[in-house]
Amino acid sequence: MLFFLFCISLLSWTTESATTCPDQWIPYHESCYLFGHTHLSFFEAGYYCQQHNSHLVRMETATENNFIKNHIRYMTEARWWIGLTDVYAEHQWVWYGTNEPPVFTDWYPGQPDDQGYEEDCCELLYRHGQWAWHDVDCNYHISYAICEMDGGIDQGIVG
Length: 159
Ligand SMILES: [Ca+2]
Ligand SMILES: [Ca+2]
Ligand SMILES: [Ca+2]
Hints:
- This protein has three helices and ten strands.
């Protein structure tokens, strides 16, 4: 039992030593992530993250996307906002806050389809046994926020 506890503490020490995050935030590589608890519209979700000194998550890499998908797999909510939108120009998907186009995408087959000509925001949706990106109406209060902030890197321990 003691050995087990020792392994657990060693594990949390090795995974969290490089990045320091506020309480409730999950460290991963150089970022910290906060998973919301209420259904918000896309812009409300953006504001929620802003209030927490962060932004809606930007999936720069497949690795980051997989980390997020693995994490929400164990939660009951099936819809999560990520910070991708084409609200400024149809079919021009950009990260909310930087206006950078995504390098990597993980859309469901057939998405984004801009159904009803009013789907301008991106959520991570669980459907048919898998998680993938899906465009949906920004004003629907159907998804939880995933926020991301830069982690405080402890330079002394990295490496
Ligand atoms: Ca990111
Ligand atoms: Ca659209
Ligand atoms: Ca859609």
